[in-house]
Write a structure and sequence with these properties.
13-stranded antiparallel sheet; about 15% helix; 4 helices; 4-stranded antiparallel sheet; alpha+beta
Length: about 200
């Protein structure tokens, strides 16, 4: 059985870093964002971050009746988790010091590690299928904390993109799109759409 754990070396970003970017969206973090690795058998396969950043996703569906939905825009000021390729990100780290923890509201490194461990446990105990991404060399998973302290999940698997939040589900796969919101469900396939009002 593979051993999955949080590392114990905390770094910070030496510059602003784009963690994920595609035509439909972007996840960026600013300089001095704290980071602790998520390790699978001692190999880094992701991070828990805490700093400042942003997440944008174009979840608007263009139908014959016009555009439906609205873009997702989130300020990333709370801890969040990322699984996926870490090779490029590792080059943008420098050592974190006591003042970096204080800036983010922690007494010390142990305070940050305890919160990171808590988020890590919440994500994996829910049976989230992060293990599959961890064992592959492509794809990303992000888990963002929302206002209700639950997790909004973004999964990118090449041509397939899934975003599941408190009040919406957005799935995009090549030329097929599904958007589920509190008021409607929209299915788009090869330019043809079906809209079901709730």
């Amino acid at each position: 059985m593979a051993k999955l754990s949080i590392g114990n070396t905390v770094s910070k970003t030496s510059e602003a870093v784009t963690l994920w970017q595609m035509e439909k969206g972007i996840v960026e973090i600013s300089k001095n964002t704290l980071a602790v690795p998520i390790e699978l058998d001692d190999k880094e396969r992701g991070y828990v971050f805490h700093g400042n950043g942003k997440f944008l996703l174009d979840s608007i569906v263009e139908t014959e009746e016009g555009a439906i939905g609205k873009p997702v825009e989130k300020e990333l000021n709370e801890l969040f988790l990322m699984l996926g390729d870490t090779e490029e990100i590792q080059k943008r780290f420098t050592e974190a010091g006591e003042e970096d923890f204080a800036k983010m509201g922690y007494e010390n490194q142990h305070g940050f590690l305890a919160k990171a461990e808590d988020l890590f446990n919440r994500f994996f105990e829910k049976g989230m299928h992060g293990h599959r991404i961890l064992n592959e060399d492509h794809g990303f998973i992000f888990a963002f904390q929302n206002e209700t302290s639950k997790l909004d999940i973004l999964v990118d698997k090449g041509l397939k993109l899934v975003y599941k939040a408190m009040d919406m589900v957005f799935v995009s796969n090549k030329n097929k799109v599904v958007l589920k919101s509190p008021s409607e469900v929209v299915c788009l396939s090869n330019g043809k759409s079906v809209i079901v009002k709730k």
